[in-house]
Amino acid sequence: ASQESLSFRVSHYGAISFSGYRLGYLPYNSTSAKINFTGAVVAPYWFVKPATNYWTPKVSYELLNSRKHSTRSNWRAVKQIIEQEIRSKFNPLTALIVTWRILTPSLPYGNRFDCVSNCTSRQAWDEKNGWLDLCLGLCSRAKANASIEFQAVVTRNETHSYAIFNYGDFHLPVPRILNWSHPTLNLMAFSGFTDNVFVRKELPFSLRPDWPELPNLSPGSSGRPGRHVLSIGKRVLSECGSWIAAARANQSRSVFPGCSDCPFDLRTAVLDKRYSPYEFECSSDSIRMCFRNTSYHCAKEFSYMYSRCRPSYSLACQLQKCSQLVSTSCCYRMSSAAAGSEISQLCRRSDALWKVRAALRRIMFNMSFTGHLINSSSDGAGHAMYFYRKRTTNRVRFGLRSQQYQNELYGLRVCSAAGMMAAYSAVRPVCTSKNYQPPVGGFIRGDPHLSTLSNSSYTFNGHCEYHLIYNWCRCWPNSPTVRLQARTAPVSGGAATAFVGVALKSGLNELAVSVIRNESSDDLDVFSSDGRRIGSVRGELAALNNATRLDSYRLEVPDNSTIDIVDESAGVSVTVTMETSSLRIGVLLSNAEKCSRGLCGLLGNSDASGFRLRNGSVLPAGSSERQLFEFGNSWRLESSDSSYLHYPAGKGRADFCNLSFVPTFAEDFKDNMLALFGGNAELKNASEEVCRSSGSSDLTCMFDAAQLRSVAAAQDAAVAIQDETRTRVVLANRPPQFVSAPSQL
């Protein structure tokens, strides 16, 4: 149909998936009489789950190609069958042959007898009149011959694809005479194919409860009983040509802007949350993964427009004034040998894409291979996607189900199927990484140690609610594009604090998202700023296969202690991880947000330290922890500030602040670490070993263990330090730029 696939999955239950999904029994809804198809499926006999588990499927397959197998008998048979059907020459490129044999397909029924329970009957009349003996005899003979077998062949040449369905013997284990009501209900099956986008075709007897006993006697399309040949797709040159002509007509200029902001490699794309994965496929020799930039670029503005959108410099406001938008698609490939066993295991699972991404992030940090950006259409590169707005009141975002989005997907599919990707690339250029700008990061851990957007580190132990990032501009001070706030609370011992809550409001979203640590349930609760509880990380959110959406926020739960909040409209992502008595917070921010300041420091600042107080004064380089304590408290939420953090019933901001709190300062114990641990040499030595073995001799690692009185806190700190270091290294890693190079090497 409209799709081309490099891989397939065979189900035990009579179906083949060409979209990478693992198929179970036929997902048939008997009430609505509908099937919830998953991706592209070819199915000779995809059956509804039987009432018991006595079915024993045995499946085998053979994958043939023209280069290696053209002399085999099965190859010649496939070629002959298709040529008889189309009455012309057919030279296949590939042929997939899958055979199913269902042994002892025992079926229980709701009447007085069934073979599974050895014809047990509660009525004495049955035994006296010979019904029991009759049942046992018939069941014995039926079981001896019980089997169902069928076959699917999927083949293609340069222009067309076909499916051949062959039905062999269908011997049911229970004769109809013993089953008066719903005799074949459990054998209802789908027979046909679908691409789950444009095309769905079924054989005439598909999903009929009276056909499955003898499908081999059904009149086949090829003239042979039990054989059916279906045309399941052709490379439609005319459809691709028409689509390209329409795309050119919509363009405002002869050469439309391309997309050049793809991350440099797969490892960077996995890390940069501004890019959302939409495809992950595996073949025998490589893996391929594709991402889409969740924000857009403006290709053309409306000729005359006055916008009240504020702040006018923000990406959201720029898009409001835009009539033609560009979205970026980036695809990457890595050889199976380079990917290794851990990544290969992901190919054998059916995890959600964002969970695959989380696993890749962990795995690829320790790999020397990073996966390359695909730059050729024929190899599966990502292309620009264009969207049009006729008026300023039209939506700026185009969801998966929007007509324009579906039209973009259709153009890619039909031109790929038609082999016209060179022509397609003229109107939808291949995306590159020429102008990619990595995000900048800020990191917070333990009893709070902060690493700023400008990569300065310090410790701050205030007890209140604070601005982590306060995006401010003189032009529109009341219209921030990013506000990230956090709440602290004392940790055990009371000499330090830790972050226990965080809230994000960004872009032009009306709502904010708040994540609060729940000590009683040892979980993270997620709220919206209108007071609604969205769920918990270990509860409702963990059970979802897809990301949760709130306005333009995307909420993802990669594991049972972490939540990612991504604002697709502002290019900002926040990761919150639950640790020993504290939260670890990571933020990635677009480098364009030059007005950012707060506890996470200044972005793009030329000041020596990057620590600017709220009143505008700047701390000198090498400031003490006590001076930095003053800096941190200057970013405390004031009464005039809107708070986006969640408050329990009857509680307010004052309940979470102690303005007289003075913490322990780690710098006072540089030369006397044992005193920092209160004389507990055992805890000190164990923590020191953990911090050192992780490659970190950071004082803050020891400080966390001392204040939280836990070696686990040192382990959390060591992991966080490694994670931060690796993240900064990956984001700073750029491919070499050659000013001049020889034409030949």
From TrEMBL:
Q: Which residues form the VWFD domain?
A: 440-643
Q: Where in the cell is it found?
A: Membrane
Q: Which GO terms describe its biological process?
A: cell-matrix adhesion
Q: Note the superkingdom of the native organism.
A: Eukaryota
| The name this protein goes by in its record | VWFD domain-containing protein
Any one of the GO CC terms: membrane
Name the InterPro entries on file.
Answer: Epithelial_Barrier/Signaling, NIDO_dom, VWF_type-D
- Which keywords does UniProt give here? Disulfide bond, Membrane
Q: Where are the transmembrane segments?
A: none
The main place the protein resides is membrane
